[in-house]
Every structure is written in C-alpha cells, then in structure tokens.
Amino acid sequence: MNSVNMIGLSLRACRRQALQSIVAFLFLALPALATHVAVLETTAAKDVLTLEEKQYLTDVLRSEAVKSLPAEQNYTIMTRENISMMLPPGKAVEDCEGSCLVETGKNISANYVAQGHVGRFANNLTITVELYETAGNKLMGSFSSKAPNIESLETEIRQKSSGLFSRILASSLGKVDLQPVLADKVGHEVELVIRIDGESKKDGRKYVRGTWELASGIHEIEFEHRCYESQKFKVNVQSGKTVTVNNSLDATMGNFSLTTNFNGAFREVPVFVNGVMVGRTPFTGRVPICAKVEAGEDEFRETVVLEWSGKEKLEIAHNLKNAKPTAEELRADSLASVERMAEQMAAEEAARAAAAKEKRSAIAKPVSIAMMVLGLASVGVYENMVASDERKKYDEATFDNQKDFDDQWDKVESAKTMRNIFYGIGGGLIGAGAVVFFVF
Predict the structure, then answer these.
(1) pLDDT tens digits for range 154-173
(2) Cα–Cα dist 162/155, whole Å
(3) 3-state DSSP call for residue 68?
(4) CA 64, CA 77: separation in Å to the nearest integer?
(5) Residue 197: how many CB atoms within 10 A of its CB?
(6) Angle, to 10 degrees, between the axis of helix 150-171 and the axis of helix 51-68?
C-alpha cells in the first residue's frame, strides 16, 4: 500500500472518530436521566433471511420499542444511524451478537440493548429476542417464537415484544408523592384535580393526594382547583427514589364590591374575609373567590353568599336580617320604652282602681239599699202607727172640758212634730243610700 492510500485511510479514520465523538457528545448533552434503548440489527443463520428481511424485522422490533417506551417519559430509542456512528471503526452494526451486545451498548451510551436472532427449525422460522441492561451486564428478559414464514414471524414479534420492553418500565419505576398545599384553606379537597402527563386517572384510579409509582424520567404534573390558580410543571422521577411535590397553590382572586341595607336603608357595617376584618361597607377590593365573606358587627355578623359563575367582578347588595342598633335607634327605643312603661303603669293603675271600686261596690250597694229601706220604714211606720193613731183619737174623742181638748190636741201636734223629724231622718237615710248606691 502506497503512502497516499495510507494517508487517505488515516484521514477517513480521523473523520469517523471525530463524528463518533460529536455523536457521543450530543447523547451526553441530553438530560442525564434520559433512558437510551438500542435495538441492534437482527442476525440470521446463513441463507435464512436476506439483508433486507433482517433490516425489516429490526425495524419492526424498534417500532414496538417506541410504542412501549414513550418519549414523554424520557425514553430515547436510538436509530440505525445513531448506532452506526457510535460503533468502533471497522465494525458493522450487523456484526454484533452474543457478548458483543452489552459491549456495544456501552460503546454507544445505551442503557439497554436488544437484538433478535432468526434461525430455522424443521420447516419453521424461529426467532429469539434478548434484552440486556448494559450497566450490570444483566439479561433483562427474552422471548422465542416460531412461524412458518416471515409474515407470521413479524406477527409474533409484534405480539410479544411489548411484554419484553415493559420490563424496562418495571425496572425503572420511581415514585412521586403529591402533597399540594391549599394555602388559604378554602374550598374542598374533593374539588382538587391532579393530572400526570395529561391524564387524571391511572389504571382506572383517579389521581389524588398521595404516592404514585411512575416510570423514571420527566413527567408533567398539573394541579387544578376551582378556588386556586392552576399549576403545571415537570418533575424528574428516578428509579427507586421518591420525589415529593408540595407546591403551595395560590388562591384565585376576584374583584368584589359590597353594600349593605337594613330595613330598606343603607347601613354601614364591618366586612370580614376569612375571619379577618378588611374594611366597612360600602366595600370594594379583591378577595379569594372561595373566601368566606361576612358583614355585620359582633353577634349580628352574617355570611354573604358569593356566586361568581365566571364573572370578573361581583357586585352584591346584601340585605341584613339583623343589625346592631345605632345611637339614634337606641335613643328612640329608650323613649318608646318609657312611653310603653307609662302606658302600662296607667293601665295597671286603672285596673287596680276598677278592682277597688268593684270591691267597694260589693260592700256599699247592700248598705245603701239597707239605708234607703230603713228611711222609708222610718217615714211609713211613724206616720201609720203614731201620728195617725193620735189624730184618730182626737177626731173621735168627746171632750168634757177644755183641758182634755187641749191635752189631746197637744198630742196631735207633738205627733206631727215627731212625724216631721222621722220624715227628715227617713229622707236623709234614703238620700244617703242613693248616693252610696250610685257613687260606689
């Protein structure tokens, strides 16, 4: 070999080595936790498959790896070109099998490496696919199948390869402990929605606060709550480790104005948000949309219902059921109380007077009647029993002398005098009885 050819070979070797270095640098520049999987070219016994058939089965196996190991979980399936550029000089991708698999995986910075080998058994084609972890030189798993032709062999590969590559997922599981903090303690836990990689469920179970197993790699976490601002971020999950996520969610705020009325008129009262006084009505400000808003003083404090329904600003005129009395109302109440008290006292006095009168009447009426009866009796008895008797004697008498006549006449006159006295006493009794009867 002449010197020109040797120089050409040296230059080609340098270019290849430089390209390998660049490719290696690009792979190393990827996130440190990215998982690289290499599917090497399928090998076959002599005269069993053509080169094109082997490459096709390799492409089928590689496509199944892509389906089983999602890129969003930070799995990278290396292409045929990536692998070729990373191989040592003079070694073709088709030349690797057996112990070369793990070594080749290390050379191309792959975490896992897989390869299929096709043979023949009786009238059937056979295939064995092996998967290795390069770091520990460990066989992760394999499967073997046979089929009458290459089309059937492709079907076998598609059916069984997903189970093989899922071993990578199982071996690289980590955990994420989701503990979002609802800072203002408003709303309810049940309203919290958690999504991981865009999904709110895993295997039919809703994502909730707690620890969940995930494949190692980058995952997108999202927290949503009616009362808080949504959060979306990414976390690195490492195999065998737990990532704790305890982000604090900020309450969603809204513009709010409040006026308060009592008995049809405006009433100024304090405003409380989550138990803290923030001003007096009329109030305008920003409050958490799920905050507990109250209006009123002391024992008269009332809850104000907030119904945002997508509104950017909420304006509420709240009618107070009760309110602490003002100084003017207290004075008016005092005057009214005095008037009511005076009316009550007057009514009570009238009731007592009526009761006393009734009591006196119960005693006085029989007495007055007795007095009038006694008066009538005094007049009637003396008139009928004394005066009339003396007059009759006078009228019927025959007097023998003047002296007897004078004596009898004196008796008549004396009876008249006594009659007039009894008339006076009787009339007085009758009058007094009448007065007592009608007055008492």
Answers:
(1) 999 999 999 999 898 887 78
(2) 12
(3) helix
(4) 10
(5) 16
(6) 40
